[in-house]
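ok trying again, last paste got cut off:
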Amino acid sequence: MLNIIKNTLHIICELTNSNSAFLLESNNGINKIISSYTQSKSLIFQKSFLEYLKKECPQKSELKRSSKIIDIMGEYFFESYYSKDLVLKPKKICLLLFASKKNNYTKDKINIINNLAKLLKKDLATILAGIDNFQKNDISKINFPFDVIFELAFDSVNDLIFFLDKDGRFLNINPSAVSHLNYNLNEIKSKHFIDIVSTKKSGQLVKSFSEIIRQKSRVTFSTVLISKFFKEIELEVIATPFLNGNNIEGLILYGKNITELQSYAQKMKDSETKLIEAQRIISIERMRSKRQKAFLEEMNKMKKDFISNISHELRTPLASIIGFTETIYSEPNMDNEMRNEFIQIILNEGKRLAKLVNELLDISHFEETSIKIIKSSFNISNLMLEAIKNNQTNINKKKIILSHEIQDENVILNGDKEKIFQVIDSILKNSIKYTEEEGRIYITSQSLFREFEISISDTGIGIPENNLKTIFQKFQRINFIDKNTEETGLSLVLIKQIVDLHKGFISIQSNENKGTSVIVKFPRELNSSIN
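nice, full thing came through this time. structure:
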């Protein structure tokens, strides 16, 4: 019978989240421990509490509000305790409960304590009367009032509680278990506990039951039950054996449904993943925003520089045109040779101004409209020879030595012949322009596996190193050593845009006072490359 009382104290602790329970018989400061239950982690507290009872011999009234008890609780981080008198004349019995949680004993838990205290009174009355109807060989007749427990306590809990015999078969389950498993009491009584356990957890269950038999103490494990309608219910189970001496006569299983908790945990994990991803995207967008801001600031700076540069470029030829025109107008008797010289200067400056305006219009046209590529098949080698012929006059005028190694093979490209000619012609014109008299220009071409490469090198004045990285940027001005050769770089912008439209590649290598090499590559199969 004392084992039944101890198990009842265990149940009270489980249902009320208590760590320790003591059933005391108190008489004039002499306190006798009838039974107790203490979690293993609280055994040191139990020892201190028992020493206090032996040493201080507190009266029954002191047990309800003792500063000494509170001090002992504080040493072991206990925050709540509750006392309940059990009236059993002539005995004075007191139930003491201790918990580590602050304000643990709520109204609902006190109701559970009051209901289970009735069971303790009944069992204690049986002990006092010297009656013990416990039968060892029939677990179904254990003097453990199952129906009263369910009626008074187990109806109020949402967790699943099972009573099993020593073979692991169901004796009874609480209403919450009925609701979760969809089995009624008669259906479940014919089953073994392992019958409703998922096959993937059956091995672990056998191992846990073997541990209970070996240790004859409480064991905690997780398992998955299968309801009548094949729904999986994941449980954290506390299994406590009923002992008769050293024999296990039955089991009580207290299961907490963690299916929803696992679902919430997975949702939390998913949310954390999404949060990390969102934070990463926000970080990327912030970096992109910073880059865009820096780009816009750089573009504004470049545009300001461009306006300043283009104003200079426009002002210089206009000033020359106006100046020489006024001179001719104010000097009607000017000799013909000087007049013709001035007219030639005016003509050259006018052409220079027209070229600058046309390049500006071309860039605007490239940026504001969708340029259409007019495709045709043509011989690229012939096109290169045509570009050389087109610039022969200026080559001869500056006495430049031009040599080339242009392949004679019939290399056919499919692209915009006029625009590709413009690229080759513009690069060659720049080489002639910035190569001093009697300098050299060398043109080569070669067919690669999927590309056709054109290289134009000269021994001209070269490009400053600090301009090479930004040479294809819009509005970028190149400051040459010779200030008379200042250039806005508009032609290079146009060349780069045409090459890009053909999915090609262009690069420039240059050293000041040593010359420049321009390398252009066009895909050999442009049919699928040009939109």
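cool. The chain has four domains: 2-128, 145-257, 263-368, 376-523. Confidence is low (pLDDT under 50) at residues 131-152, 479-489, 526-531.
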